[in-house]
């Protein structure tokens, strides 16, 4: 039984920081790339970041490069997303997702968490 559970969301002021976590179970975590995908209110899904199975390769969109950092702790079966310099447009439901392959650039995800809400507001 594959399970992904996000946590760490909340309300933060513009310019603030937040760290999201995703705990995984039901599969060999270290064999798969992982990703974060978000959905703003009234909008579609937007890919945020991905990380290879061993954590050595990471991927970001240009708008998030330098502000967000994806990482993983394979010993704890946990994926992280550290967000800094948050903007109002970062407000969204953030999902943790499992890639079907190892590298992190496939963008084919077979399992998703239920999401954690991030709200950036003054």
Fold blueprint:
Elements (H helix, E strand, L loop, with lengths): L2 E5 L2 E3 L5 E8 L8 E6 L5 E7 L6 E3 L7 E6 L4 E6 L8 E8 L9 E4 L3 E5 L2
Parallel strand pairs: 2-11
Antiparallel strand pairs: 1-3, 3-8, 4-5, 4-9, 5-6, 7-8, 9-10, 9-11
Salient structural properties:
single chain; mainly beta; 122 residues; globular; four-stranded antiparallel sheet; seven-stranded mixed sheet; 11 strands
Characterization of this structure:
Strands 2, 4, 5, 6, 9, 10 and 11 form a seven-stranded mixed sheet that branches. A four-stranded antiparallel sheet has the order 1-3-8-7, with no helix packed on it. It is globular, with a radius of gyration of 13 Å. It starts with a strand and ends with a strand. The protein contains no helices and eleven strands. With 122 residues, the protein is an all-beta fold. A hairpin with a 4-residue loop joins β7 (68-73) and β8 (78-83).
Shape: globular
The major β-sheet equals: 7 strands, mixed
Strand content: over 45%
| Cα gyration radius (Å) | 13 Å
Task: Report the count of strand segments.
Answer: 11
Distance between the termini: 40 Å
Tally the helices: 0
The structure class reads mainly beta
What share of the residues lie within helices? Answer: under 10%
Look at the structure and give the mean pLDDT: 96
The low-confidence parts are none
| SSE topology string | EEEEEEEEEEE
């Amino acid at each position: 039984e594959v399970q992904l559970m996000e946590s760490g969301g909340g309300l933060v002021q513009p310019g603030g920081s937040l760290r999201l976590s995703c705990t995984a179970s039901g599969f060999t975590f270290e064999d798969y790339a992982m990703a974060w995908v978000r959905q703003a209110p009234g909008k579609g899904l937007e890919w945020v970041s991905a990380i290879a199975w061993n954590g050595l390769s990471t991927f970001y969109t240009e708008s998030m490069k330098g502000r967000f950092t994806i990482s993983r702790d394979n010993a704890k079966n946990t994926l992280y997303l550290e967000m800094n310099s948050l903007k109002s447009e970062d407000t969204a439901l953030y999902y943790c997702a499992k890639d079907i392959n190892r590298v992190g650039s496939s963008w084919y995800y077979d399992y998703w968490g239920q999401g954690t809400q991030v709200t950036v507001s003054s």
